[in-house]
Amino acid sequence: MSGRELWADGRLRAAWAARDWPTLIRRYRALAGISQQRFGELVGVDQGYVSRLERGRARVTSEDVVARFKEGLHVPIELGGVAERGIGHRWAPPTELRERMARAHATGHVDLRTAEWIGRVLAEHRRAEDEVGGRDLWPVVRSQLDSVTELIPRAAGEAADRLMLLAAEHAHWMSWVAWKEQEPGAALTWIDLAHGWAVDGGHSDMASWAQRVRAHYSLDRGDPVRALRTAEAARYAAPGRLSPAAESVAVYQAAMAAAACAERDRARRLSDEAQELALRAQDAADRPGWLYWLDGTRARLQHADVAYACRAWSDAAAGFREALPALAGYPRDFAYYKGRLDDAQRRT
Fold first, then answer.
1. Would you state the pLDDT for residue 84?
2. Does residue 52 share a domain with residue 26?
3. Reduced to 3 states, what is the DSSP secondary structure of residue 35?
4. N or C, which terminus of the chain has less Cβ within 10 Å?
5. Cβ count near 57 (within 10 Å)
6. Are residues 59 and 83 in the same domain?
7. Angle, to 10 degrees, between the axis of helix 204-220 and the axis of helix 224-236?
8. Would you say residue 197 lies in a domain?
9. Residue 86 and residue 8 share a domain
10. Any domain includes 195
11. Is residue 7 located within the same domain as residue 125?
12. What is the CATH classification number for the domain harbouring 285?
């Protein structure tokens, strides 16, 4: 595995952002398959010092040593200044970020290789979040977003549009993490930014998805009427331009909101429609990157979830029972849906 490929790993990036030297060294050595001696050679320190750092018996206090780590381990440019920027867990988006976005679509040229790399690692973070934790990855993703938005004023045309989508994907991720961290104001601000940037860049699927996420937030906070309105807006905001996968999740969210409004017939009808749309996007290439998870299993689970919300216990139990075996590699999701299955079976 090349040095650049190593830095796609979420745990490694989070350890660098936190300056967690024991975790950083252990993770880097495990990924690269190297000894403490070789690690020391890469960063210009002796093996004994590496050993003390890895065991937590020494600390890095010199910026010169930090610089050696950056150079010797080929730390990506978008991670180079995480600690110095002091972004930590400052949840709300800063003014300077929005100022950079306001200067998008200027005339110019930009090398997109950095952006394509950042897009790849964001996809890795989406998959790693369950294990690494969104709070630990937060400064990493914020730093990545800074790198993306710094490219935008130098881009034009299609390149600028691609960068706007990547910025929107980052803003969506940050909104989701902020919501889970009980920071609803910041979460709503980030998701509104994601929606606006997606619209500016002409990305209908992401714009719809951002509205769908907002509908989920409303439902989560006990406002199903607002959730239903927003989910319907997510579906119809770009008629004829949504992918089946993006339309499916918007329709599913509307179904859940309708069930919470006691409109059960409408909810079941929408649920059938959502499942049909999802099954039209079984090839991963037919789904936007952030909907990588919407395969046949997830479509069946969402269908069962609507049945559960409609108190159709027998149908819900059957759906959960059929799909659960495919979640064996996802312990957190498995536990959630297993709990739903057990409860539906008790109520049947």
1. 47
2. yes
3. coil
4. N
5. 10
6. no
7. 170
8. no
9. no
10. no
11. no
12. 1.25.40.10
Kind plus residue range of the DSSP H or E element containing 23: helix 21-32
Token look-up 């998008």 returns: 104
Looking at the fold, whether 175 and 44 belong to one and the same domain comes out as no
Q: Which domain holds residue 226?
A: 203-348
Residue 58 amino acid letter: A
Express each pLDDT in 266-317 by its tens digit: 999 999 999 999 999 988 888 998 888 899 999 999 999 999 999 999 999 9
Residue entry with tokens 């745990």? 11
Q: What is the 3-state secondary structure (H, E, C) of 282-335?
A: CCHHHCCHHHCCCCHHHHHHHHHHHHHHCCCHHHHHHHHHHHHHHHCCCHHHHH
Q: SS3 for 173?
A: helix
Both structure tokens of 102: 């306001």
Residues 244, 340, single domain; the answer is yes
In the chain, how many domains are there?
3
Q: What is the pTM for the complete model shown?
A: 0.81
Residue showing tokens 């709070």: 135
**Phi, psi for residue 293 in degrees, rounded to 5:** -85, -10
Rounded to whole angstroms, how far apart are CA atoms 315 and 116? 43
In a domain, 196, yes or no: no
What digits encode the pLDDT tens for the residues 169-179?
999 999 999 99
Q: Which residue, 185, 220, 235, sits at the end of a domain? A: 185
Only one residue has tokens 């059957």, namely 318
Residues 6+ apart with CB under 8 A from 273: 251
Q: Which long-range contacts (CB under 8 A, 24 or more apart) does 86-93 make?
A: 87/139, 87/142, 87/143, 88/139, 89/135, 89/138, 89/139, 91/178, 91/181, 91/183, 91/186, 92/185, 92/186, 92/189, 93/171, 93/174, 93/186, 93/189, 93/190, 93/193
Give the other-Cβ count within 10 Å of 233's Cβ. 16
Q: Is residue 140 one of the residues assigned to a domain?
A: yes
